[in-house]
Amino acid sequence: MSFTQLDALTAHLNELDAQGLRRFRHGVESVCQPHLLVDGQPLLAFNSNDYLGLAAHPLVVEALREGASLYGAGSGASHLISGHSQAHARLEELLADMLSPFLPSVRALYFSTGYMANLGVLTALADTAKGDITFFSDALNHASLIDGIRLTREPCQVYRHADTADLPQRLSTCQSGTKVVVTDGVFSMDGDIAPLQALLALCEQHGVWLLVDDAHGFGVLGDGGAGVLQHFNLRSEQLIYIGTLGKAAGVSGAFIAAHEHVIEWMVQRSRPYIYSTASVPALAHALLTSMRIIRGEEGRRRRAHLHTLIQQLSTAPVQAAWQRMASTTAIQPLVIGSNAQVLKASADLKAQGIWISAIRAPTVPVNTARLRITLSASHTTQDVDCLVQALAGGGLS
């Protein structure tokens, strides 16, 4: 006798196959860098978020080893029990100092992942309002922001992507006592930057929070790598800032930086923070080195080189049938169209030794499947030349 529920699940998987939507993992056999060994095949990769090339930086790797020798392999408990190490505390102090020009009376709180940070801050904010809150979410926000808002079970209005004409009307007509505008800083699938100057002006005009998830901007944008807030030179106590530490910082985790009262409320009420075992202290110890690199002269050199690569790729020709997204960041997507087309383009590139993932629905809208090209400061101009030649070649269609 067949198990009908398992049969139904199998049918759903078969449907994903028919639509070209099943996802697969690939075994990377080398350190995170542009030139990889993947399932036994040497590939030049353009699909990592290691934007500054710090994941394999010798000083960061050595700091991780040192952290393990100092603190061991695990934290043993949640932060509020006994898992909050001196490494966690020092990292939070350093991050707060880094964001202090942009966030008055700032504190920072370290989380194990960016997803957890977003769930934690959104649900904690909802807990302050006792049912009298509305979220305003950009239409292209990351899944973690969408899921965090859903988890609150509070009203949410989705405004048109980066549309500073749509949002004010929504804010003006909403009667909730607490309002929170929620946006990515750099949008992960398009590579464009949110119009934060206009958004902050609106939020200050209406007396509402502006929550910015800068997963793809922190470390990369701004003269000192402090992300979109430094890029636009913003400062306000109404800002709540989320930065990711597993992308440009090269290690793992995320943080929230905001007014000290916001952070203290999260320590008291953010369930993902309170009820999770603290991240491995050695990771926080390694991140102290990452932050010093990002803020120092080497970080500036790496960002300058990355900008050179962005210019090199963004001005190179691509096939006429493909749409280049208007991006000035390290995320340089090419919209191909259907799932079948993008899968073929990705496979053709892989046959030439270049690895770029095919991004399909539901991550992006239907019929906007794309090659999400990401650049790293570890790439050379010769690496990008190889990519440009492959993209312009006749072997792709």
Short description:
With 397 residues, the chain is of the alpha/beta class. It is 43% helix and 17% strand.
Task: Name some characteristics of this structure.
four-stranded antiparallel β-sheet; seven-stranded mixed β-sheet; 397 residues; 15 helices; Aspartate Aminotransferase, domain 1; alpha/beta; Aspartate Aminotransferase, domain 2; 2 domains; single chain
CATH homologous superfamily title of the largest domain: Type I PLP-dependent aspartate aminotransferase-like (Major domain)
Helix content: 40-55%
Number of helices: 15
Percent strand equals: 15-25%
Instruction: Characterize the quaternary organization of these chains.
Output: single chain
Q: What is the number of strand segments?
A: 14
Distance between the termini: 47 Å
Low-confidence stretches: none
Query: How would you sum up the global shape?
Result: globular
Structural class: alpha/beta
What's the CATH first level of the largest domain?
A: Alpha Beta
CATH topology category name of the largest domain: Aspartate Aminotransferase, domain 2
Under the CATH scheme, the architecture of the largest domain is: 3-Layer(aba) Sandwich
